[in-house]
């Protein structure tokens, strides 16, 4: 059983806890000046992430490989970090038409902590272990432990437990070095520097984590064939906006006009990929579904096999 590691890094020593010299007089600035200085600071986030692209790419490839074998992508974190994991996971079903069990966000303190801050839970290593056990993590899974500080006990527990179970363990923090880095196979650490408001890691650190999570989930889904080019062909058309998006995608992928594309979508029961195969190959919905199933539901592979 994973045991709680010693964390030798003091909070006061963290980069994200240092005073930002650019904002020491922020309380004397007007609204325009505040917006400008925050924008200047945010510009550093993308540059910090650029330094981590090799690690991010490595993580994308490794997660996709595990998913092909039936694994899940699990985000575990506390506070803002955990909420960002929940946010990214919740967007995957409507965007890529995957089950909600495939990409899961787990926040310290549970659903209640989404709307109501529960900072004390992040200090509980035992809570992290309990959530990992509840999720029944296996060697097929990929676990991303999120902690801006890189030292949060809840996230350290997730990383240690994942490694113990043989799962792929990935760390995401905005401080380096960190205790989290010592526990994971792949460490992603965009160091964004001191925050605009000292220690408020919901700002640059939170933005950096969101950007990395965007890359991880999107990159994995692209590798799994959930897009056709950059078209969201697995979109679930569950409301008017998404139906219009699906309609546009069918138009772009088939070259048909809106009326014919709408007819295909209706005949395909709203299934965008099915409608595209029907239109391109001039086949029925049933045959289109069969062809997609034969080729692991990957649209490009299906169309190439049909020579259309």
Automatic annotation (TrEMBL):
Pfam families for this protein: GKRP-like_C, GKRP_SIS_N
GO BP, sorted A to Z: amino sugar catabolic process; N-acetylmuramic acid catabolic process; peptidoglycan turnover
Root EC class: lyase
Enzyme Commission numbers on file: 4.2.1.126
UniProt key word Transmembrane: no
Other known facts: A lyase-type mechanism (elimination/hydration) is suggested for the cleavage of the lactyl ether bond of MurNAc 6-phosphate, with the formation of an alpha,beta-unsaturated aldehyde intermediate with (E)-stereochemistry, followed by the syn addition of water to give product.
Name this polypeptide is given: N-acetylmuramic acid 6-phosphate etherase
Organism: Tengunoibacter tsumagoiensis
Gene from which the chain derives: murQ
């Amino acid at each position: 059983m994973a045991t709680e590691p010693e964390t030798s890094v003091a909070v006061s020593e963290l980069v994200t806890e240092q005073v930002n010299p650019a904002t020491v007089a922020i309380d004397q600035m007007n609204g325009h000046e505040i917006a400008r200085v925050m924008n200047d600071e945010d510009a550093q986030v993308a540059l910090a992430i650029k330094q981590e692209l090799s690690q991010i790419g490595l993580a994308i490839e490794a997660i996709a490989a595990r998913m092909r074998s039936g694994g899940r992508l699990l985000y575990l974190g506390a506070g803002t970090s955990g909420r960002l994991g929940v946010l990214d996971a919740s967007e995957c079903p409507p965007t890529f038409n995957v089950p909600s069990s495939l990409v899961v966000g787990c926040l310290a303190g549970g659903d209640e902590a989404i709307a109501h801050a529960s900072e004390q839970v992040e200090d509980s290593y035992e809570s992290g272990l309990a959530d990992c056990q509840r999720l029944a993590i296996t060697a097929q899974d990929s676990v991303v432990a999120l902690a801006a500080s890189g030292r949060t006990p809840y996230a350290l527990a997730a990383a240690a437990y994942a490694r113990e179970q043989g799962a792929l363990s990935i760390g995401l923090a905005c401080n380096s070095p960190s205790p989290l880095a010592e526990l994971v196979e792949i460490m992603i650490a965009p160091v964004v520097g001191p925050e605009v408001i000292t220690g408020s890691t919901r700002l640059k650190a939170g933005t950096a984590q969101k950007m990395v999570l965007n890359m991880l989930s999107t990159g994995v889904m692209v590798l799994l064939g959930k897009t056709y080019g950059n078209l969201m062909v697995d979109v679930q058309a569950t409301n008017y906006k998404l139906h219009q998006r699906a309609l546009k995608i069918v138009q772009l992928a088939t070259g048909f006009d809106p009326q014919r594309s709408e007819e295909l979508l209706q005949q395909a029961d709203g299934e965008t990929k099915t409608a595209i195969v029907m239109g391109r190959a001039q086949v029925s919905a049933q045959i289109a579904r069969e062809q997609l199933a034969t080729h692991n539901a990957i649209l490009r592979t299906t169309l190439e096999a049909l020579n259309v």
